[in-house]
Amino acid sequence: MAIGQLEGHRKLSAKIAAILQEVRSSNATHRRKLKEILALRLSSPAEFCAAFCEALVPLFNFQRRNSSSERTIKFVSSFACSSSDKDDSGDEFLENFLRFLLLAATAANKTARFRACQIVSEAHDMEVSSELWDEVIECMKIRAGDKIPTVRTFAIRSLARFANDSENRDILELFLEKLPLEQNGDVRKILVLSLPPSSETLSMIIDCTLDVNESARKAAYCVLASKFPLQSLSIKLRATILQRGLAERSAAVAKECFRMMKDEWHEKCCNGDPIELLKFLDVETYESVGETVMSTLLKAGLVKLQDGQTLREFIAPGGDSAEEGGNCSHSIELMDAEVAVFWRVVCRHLNIEAHKKGSDAAMTMGTESTVYAEEASHNNDLLDRILPASVSDYVELVNAHIVAGANYRFVSRQLLLLGTMLDFSDVSNRKVASVFLQDLLHKALDHELDESGNEVIIGDGFNLGGEKNWAAAVAELCKKVHAAAGEFEEVVLNVVEELAQPCRERTADWKKWLHCLAVVGLLLENTTSFRHMQGNAIDPTEILHSLLLPGAKHSNLDVQRASVRCLGLFGLLERKPNEDIGKQLRCSFVKGPSTVSIMAAKALLDLAIWHGPDEMDKVMNCNLSSDIHDDEVSSTLFEFGEGHEDSNFELLDLLCVGLEHDWDDLEEIEDHQSIQDVLGEGLAKILLLSNKFPGSHTSKHHLILAKLIRLYFSSDNEEFQRLKQCLSVFFEHYPSLSINHKKCLAKAFMPVMRSLWPGINGNAAGSTMMVSNMRKIAVQASRFMLQMIQAPLLAKDSTSTEENKSENPSVETCLSLDLESEEEGLAVRIAVEVASFDAKKTAAEKSYVAALCKILVLLQFRVSEQGVIKLMRRILSRASAVVAAEKDLTKELRHMAEHLKAIDRNPDEQLSSEQASQILEKLELTFNLEKDDSTEAAPTPAPQSIRPRPTRRRARAHKDSSSNDEGSPTSVVPNTPVIGTRSQRASKTAAMSKMAAKTTVKIDEYGSEDDEDEALAEVTSEDDSDASV
């Protein structure tokens, strides 16, 4: 009977396996085979589940995910969800099958877990008891933390359909917990797709638009499109989503964001109206986003202009002006901000396309050229129909919006930019536009009264109109109207001469000063040379001495700030630095208030980068012998805000002192930058461009770099996030650009470590926790600098280095051309630093030396650097003696010494004093190699007891001491070369016999044990000699 049942079970399992084999080939067979397997289940309900599970075992052992296995999984899931109305065997089978899957999901085999979770994730409509589903959920929650990414992926897919249920709040919390911690990109993608729409998941999904994985970013935009309507998002979130998505570096992600914007936002929510879409984005706040959206829609051909839809519809012929005080001959209808942005971008797009097609027509011939010419003509005709009929109408339109007040200031600026697409070739048109521009340039800055009744300028105070974008729009239109060479400068200088008259006569108030300086700043920003300014109403020299220098000394702080800004712009136009400008900028930086100091710092940095720090100091007659020859720049040379100035103080020294100055009362400027941000970014630019500034200042670049590294790793600079982000980009590129940068980095290593380590070099310490944190930061900085030194050079600089080596074939000598920039030079610096300490050290010194040694053993030596290797072996013996009490460090240094001895081609040959001094002099190091250099044995790690011990115990102690001496790295180089060789066993026997012969051991605390040291040195020398054979 049992044999018959076994045979029936085997046949049933074979039939199921045959069906599963057939469904692998095509999905078309699934419906027919589903009926067959249902019939088998009805014919043998009791034995079917066991046979079915047995037939699935090969699938659970098949790891690859190909099309055939995926078809089988799909068929199994469909069968598990199907039911038959003839009996209730399906329910029993389904419960048994689910328990089989739960068992497989907890198996040790990763493929079995993966297949079980995959089948559960595909089976959506299983009708089982709630208790069994609870078991499935708990199992999948455990599998969501599996170490295999594919198992986690399908476990999360299995849980996704329960995340919307309020009763399963723990599933949503699990997803939110796993998403920021997940390392695999595909798993993060599934997590994002599984998140339900809610306020707490929205921020997490938007954060995923910045994910490093392309599929995760694409999934984030897919979820935003399908689960979050446009109205449910705030204006800031809408702008953030579009700003990131439309500028996406991945074409697939950008396409997904565009699909979301086009299908869900533009078509469904806005009915295909781009102006309506712009209203959802608040273009006055997010102008760049609105401009990008319009440009994208225009390129995709989704903007369709209706008949009669032009700018002329806002200019009604005849009638009185709609605005009081207006003298126009048309009735002007004021437009909204979204409409203004729409027409500006549309007109710009048509103008660009017309020029592009015209250029293509000129570059081609025949029919192709005709087609391009027709397209260009069509775009030009369409642009002419959109723009106002005449320049007079345009001026009336802009004036109406200017008169309308501050609420239409944004629209007025858009219309000013629109004017650059008009034709001003006609003399009458230029005359009308010139009168309009004269009014704009003569228009005083707006002001209001504060709570105390004082007049306050509206805007930034140094740009025309109080806004940088407004001044740029006026300048663009002015250069378009006055396009002839020197005409723009002539027109603006005439206005400057009129405005400067009361300033030179000292009858102007601070508002007139600011207005005049705003026009001067507009001119200096948009001219290219003083050559175009010569021979006009007012000379550049007169502007400098009658406006800018007196304005920098004005009693009003806003006038000082605007004058300092213009001084910086003026200095950039000069071929050589100006002494008067340099003195005034230094004075404003040191003595001025915070708002003036930060503007002076930006001007000084711009001039230093443009002319070079050496040129700036030569003009100031500075003593170019730097005050920075030590590891630190003294910040006590003078005090900021004092009533004196030191013109002999070099520019970089001045900026470095300012970087470390305490600017407590400093306010942020309009770009949300602090004085440390400005100085840090400027000094980083100077270091990055150091090859363009050859001179005396290069000798202090490593100290500036050390300051930036300390500032980057300082624990109290969380408020300088902008500077930290800038420095992170700087450090990423700096070491790879030039070999000189690597030299500078290697020289900066030790100053950074000395300044960061607590309790060293006069550094303050603190509590135990504070000291621990400071040490962690210093270690992190050391590893960061090591990574930068090990970063490869760019191809251009590395090629030049190889050419220098080929021209100087003495590569095998002890002095390498690139020693200062390579790891060998840094290793010598660290070893000298370690060897400079005494054997007795404080706790801070011990930890400092230990940290240096851990970096030292990570450095690699090239076999070609034989001289440095020999020198390093000598210094390493001294360094090993300093850390002899640390067994772990001693062991690591011993391995390093063995490696150096192995790559030394002549280990018995000593490095001459001249060669050693040459290497140390090249590295700018001072180290006495002759001091105690005759002793190679390291001191005993622990002092021996003075009290004599029994012979047996003393022999054991001597044995341990011998073992320690054998592992000491200081015994790598013997005092005298050993000619004869013995076996290792014989050497140990001889050493033990010599040590056992001593009956007592006396330790002289004030002297040296010559006899014992000689014995230990002889033992270790013989052992090393034997090991080298």
From TrEMBL:
Residues 1006-1029 have a biased composition (Acidic residues). GO terms for biological process: cell division; mitotic chromosome condensation. Residues 931-1029 are annotated as: Disordered. One of its GO terms (cellular component) is condensed chromosome. Residues 964-974 have a biased composition (Polar residues). Keywords: Cell cycle, Cell division, Chromosome, DNA condensation, Mitosis. The keyword Lipoprotein does not apply. Residues 986-1000 have a biased composition (Low complexity). The keyword Transferase does not apply. It is found in: Chromosome. SUPFAM superfamilies: ARM repeat. Residues 515-861 form the Nuclear condensin complex subunit 3 C-terminal domain. Belongs to the CND3 (condensin subunit 3) family. This is Nuclear condensin complex subunit 3 C-terminal domain-containing protein. It comes from Salvia splendens (Scarlet sage). The lineage of its organism: Eukaryota, Viridiplantae, Streptophyta, Embryophyta, Tracheophyta.
